[in-house]
């Protein structure tokens, strides 16, 4: 609330006690004097310097209008309009492939596409022209998504000589890239950013899970291959089971498919073991993959303990 008044008004309202501002200033001083290890631990950004609205340049105001939907009512309305265009473009892209909608004239889809691309182009151009730090702008992944949302249309328009572009593989790929527009919503919806921050904060636990699944994939996939591949038919060059049917576990990579389906508890049933050893390996796979979920709390406690020990030893935080 104090920061909002500092950026919109020069005077502090009488309802806010002056002591709160002193506490806020003391917090800033304590943060500036904190060690780098503490800052790394809490993953906090340095406090920004706030300026009154009247002292901001017109270029920065335009930048904040298009880049920060929470900066005001106009920015919020603009963000809502952009979300509507993103939904319209994505819906048209999906419905265009429905055979039951062949009666819709192709010019309708083209008009929707041109309208959305024009709006996205204007928005992206303004943000590029008004951004305060171009290097930081280029490194932002969301800006890359914005670029990929519009560039396929112009490439397709400039390189196509006739209207039948769907027959070319490269143009089908360009059309597929348009679906990246749905990721633009994360710029205008706050909770999507919170979700992204949660994913980034969980990078190490997720990496641990991927490592466990990768090891299990190699071990159990290899074991299932040698247990279920059967005998090699010299004439056909295929591995056959005892009943003469072709074995689905003819190679270790082919066994990976069974292992992934089993570990994710999907269980399509297209590849199943028939020998006693193969069934034991499948049961062992199912039991093993459930063990990490049982000790999640213990893994979290050990990870926190590792961070505390690293801080006590005055070493870099392992992030």
UniProtKB/TrEMBL annotation:
What membrane topology does the annotation report for this chain? Multi-pass membrane protein
Tell me the keywords, alphabetical order.
Answer: Ion channel, Ion transport, Membrane, Potassium, Potassium channel, Potassium transport, Transmembrane, Transmembrane helix, Transport, Voltage-gated channel
Q: What stretches pass through the bilayer?
A: 209-227
State the compartments where it is located. Membrane
Query: Per the database record, which ranges form the Ion transport domain?
Result: 79-279
Q: Does the keyword Membrane apply?
A: yes
Which GO BP terms, alphabetically?
A: action potential
Q: Name one GO cellular component term.
A: voltage-gated potassium channel complex
GO MF term list: voltage-gated potassium channel activity
Q: Which protein is depicted?
A: Ion transport domain-containing protein
This chain's source organism reads: Spongospora subterranea
From which lineage does this chain's organism come?
Answer: Eukaryota, Sar, Rhizaria, Endomyxa, Phytomyxea
């Amino acid at each position: 609330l104090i920061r909002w008044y500092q950026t919109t008004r020069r005077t502090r309202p009488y309802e806010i006690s002056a002591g709160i501002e002193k506490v806020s200033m003391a917090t800033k001083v304590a943060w500036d004097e904190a060690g780098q290890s503490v800052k790394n631990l809490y993953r906090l950004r340095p406090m920004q310097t706030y300026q009154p609205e009247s002292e901001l340049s017109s270029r920065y105001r335009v930048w904040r209008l298009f880049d920060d939907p929470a900066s005001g009512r106009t920015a919020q309305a603009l963000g809502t309009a952009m979300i509507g265009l993103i939904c319209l473009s994505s819906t048209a892209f999906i419905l265009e492939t429905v055979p039951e909608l062949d009666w819709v004239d192709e010019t309708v889809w083209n008009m929707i596409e041109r309208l959305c691309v024009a709006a996205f182009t204007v928005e992206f151009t303004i943000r590029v022209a008004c951004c305060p730090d171009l290097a930081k702008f280029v490194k932002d992944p969301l800006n890359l998504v914005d670029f990929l949302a519009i560039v396929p249309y112009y490439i397709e328009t400039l390189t196509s000589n006739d209207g039948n572009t769907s027959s070319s593989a490269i143009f089908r790929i360009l059309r597929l890239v348009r679906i990246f527009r749905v990721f633009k919503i994360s710029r205008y919806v706050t909770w999507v950013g919170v979700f992204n921050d949660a994913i980034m904060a969980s990078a190490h636990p997720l990496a641990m899970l991927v490592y466990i699944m990768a090891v299990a994939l190699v071990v159990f996939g290899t074991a299932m291959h040698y247990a279920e591949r059967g005998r090699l038919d010299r004439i056909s060059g295929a591995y056959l089971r005892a009943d003469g049917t072709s074995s689905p576990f003819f190679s270790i990579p082919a066994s990976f498919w069974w292992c992934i389906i089993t570990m994710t508890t999907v269980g399509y049933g297209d590849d199943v073991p028939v020998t006693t050893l193969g069934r034991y390996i499948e049961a062992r796979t199912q039991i093993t993959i459930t063990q990490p979920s049982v000790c999640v709390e213990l893994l979290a406690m050990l990870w926190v303990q590792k961070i505390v020990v690293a801080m006590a030893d005055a070493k870099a935080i392992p992030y």
